[in-house]
């Protein structure tokens, strides 16, 4: 179930470790829980929560936990979960103010970290568009540190449709682009926005750059060539989140 | 030369790849350059720059490049460089406005990413304090994407001495701390500041928390438990850098 075709066929994925399992249970997305004796003793609250939700809890050996795990040091607790993505239609609730769109983001660790930052910044939704990685990938799940289960997620192959949905929801489309003329700190950032982040190596495609309302550059005050994707997303999403709250009186 | 005792004995470290080698040459920190035929053809400017600095350039085979490299896809260009750290004394020039202090940061990839963000945000210096990783570690060099060669760096075992030096330079000490009462967006951020970031797993030590002028929390607007080190550093350093420039009229 850890490979993509199996995941999609089964409609399930694995969330591993206490943080992810806890988030899965809060979201009521867990369907089955596997725990070692050691993990059951370390996290009795998670076992209880699963049983209260009527979820089957199965004891497994350390060796079986190693087999299920993708990490070097398995925590011995793994939940089988429903896939989290939902249709684009209806994803953006009225009044949405902050959305993160990942366009062709390839690395699952990067995608997970951006989902975590988007969640922290209070994003109303995250859209994985174009050729972006499957967010249910084990590395993405881990990098998100539970945040995969928080903001509503959609996966949309057609990036133009994703951007159009954001625009229709009243969001201004800002593309994070290292070579843009407009700098982040010269922008009014207190308005509802969909931030669009591109591929790690190639950035935003020409089509996406044409579709956004504005391409925006994070100013580089020192000698660095650029920021990496996750830190750039952190700066953009928090700049918007903080500006929006400042102008609304906190 | 890739292991720490060897590095310290030799007073040299390896910078691998065109970006890092270019940054090393700009800083005049390279002492010897090794290139494959393929890399010499791809980066003639780097070879010329090295020769103009009177640095010995040696042709190596692809196999030798693999042996020197720590990466899966070696770029075939490696510079032997002088260690970059300097004494704490004299590190902070008068008028320094932004310094990043890494206290017990263990992971070299994290350290390199924070150095890159600090450079981008225009930091006047970076201090690796306490048990922090050696910044000349190959993974740190790579994660810094050349930025290791930009801001002045010091390595200081005695964290208290590092903080004292920042204070003596007129910097306000702000500790990034997930459980602090004071929120980032309630702070005046336009003043000269040394941001202190702690260990990935344990955060700032009680001693550091007592020494800083203020512990500051990045507000979590959504359901995420926390941010990771690099994205938290990005938010704090850019919040200060942008506020400082706003109040100084850009």
Automatic annotation (TrEMBL), chains A, B:
<dbReference type="Pfam" id="PF22435">
    <property type="entry name" value="MRM3-like_sub_bind"/>
</dbReference>
<dbReference type="InterPro" id="IPR029026">
    <property type="entry name" value="tRNA_m1G_MTases_N"/>
</dbReference>
<dbReference type="InterPro" id="IPR053888">
    <property type="entry name" value="MRM3-like_sub_bind"/>
</dbReference>
<dbReference type="GO" id="GO:0005737">
    <property type="term" value="C:cytoplasm"/>
</dbReference>
<dbReference type="GO" id="GO:0006396">
    <property type="term" value="P:RNA processing"/>
</dbReference>
<dbReference type="InterPro" id="IPR029028">
    <property type="entry name" value="Alpha/beta_knot_MTases"/>
</dbReference>
<keyword id="KW-0489">Methyltransferase</keyword>
<feature type="domain" description="RNA 2-O ribose methyltransferase substrate binding">
    <location>
        <begin position="14"/>
        <end position="87"/>
    </location>
</feature>
<dbReference type="InterPro" id="IPR051259">
    <property type="entry name" value="rRNA_Methyltransferase"/>
</dbReference>
<comment type="similarity">
    <text>Belongs to the class IV-like SAM-binding methyltransferase superfamily. RNA methyltransferase TrmH family.</text>
</comment>
<dbReference type="InterPro" id="IPR029064">
    <property type="entry name" value="Ribosomal_eL30-like_sf"/>
</dbReference>
<keyword id="KW-0808">Transferase</keyword>
<dbReference type="InterPro" id="IPR013123">
    <property type="entry name" value="SpoU_subst-bd"/>
</dbReference>
<dbReference type="GO" id="GO:0008173">
    <property type="term" value="F:RNA methyltransferase activity"/>
</dbReference>
<dbReference type="GO" id="GO:0032259">
    <property type="term" value="P:methylation"/>
</dbReference>
<dbReference type="GO" id="GO:0003723">
    <property type="term" value="F:RNA binding"/>
</dbReference>
<dbReference type="InterPro" id="IPR001537">
    <property type="entry name" value="SpoU_MeTrfase"/>
</dbReference>
<protein>
    <submittedName>
        <fullName>RNA methyltransferase</fullName>
    </submittedName>
</protein>
<dbReference type="Pfam" id="PF00588">
    <property type="entry name" value="SpoU_methylase"/>
</dbReference>
């Amino acid at each position: 179930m850890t490979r993509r075709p199996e995941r999609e066929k089964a409609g399930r994925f694995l969330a591993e470790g206490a943080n992810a399992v806890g988030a899965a249970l809060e979201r009521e997305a867990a369907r089955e829980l596997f725990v070692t004796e050691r993990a059951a003793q370390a996290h009795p609250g998670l076992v209880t929560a699963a049983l209260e939700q009527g979820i089957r809890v199965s004891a497994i050996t350390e060796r079986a936990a190693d087999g299920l795990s993708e990490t070097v040091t398995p925590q011995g607790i793994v939940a089988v979960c429903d896939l989290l993505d939902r249709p684009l239609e209806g994803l953006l609730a009225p009044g949405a103010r902050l959305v993160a769109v990942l366009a062709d983001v390839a690395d699952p660790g990067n995608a997970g970290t951006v989902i975590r930052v988007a969640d922290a910044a209070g994003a109303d939704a995250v859209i994985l568009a174009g050729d972006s990685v499957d967010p249910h990938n084990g590395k993405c799940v881990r990098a998100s540190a539970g945040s995969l289960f928080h903001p509503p997620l959609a996966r949309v192959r057609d990036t133009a449709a994703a951007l159009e949905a954001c625009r229709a929801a009243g969001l201004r489309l800002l593309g994070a682009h290292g070579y843009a003329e407009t700098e982040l700190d010269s922008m009014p950032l207190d308005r509802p926005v969909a931030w669009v982040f591109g591929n790690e190596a190639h950035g935003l495609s020409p089509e996406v750059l044409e579709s956004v309302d504005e391409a925006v550059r994070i100013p580089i005050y020192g000698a660095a060539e650029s920021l990496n994707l996750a830190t750039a997303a952190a700066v953009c999403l928090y700049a918007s989140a903080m500006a929006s709250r400042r102008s609304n009186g906190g």
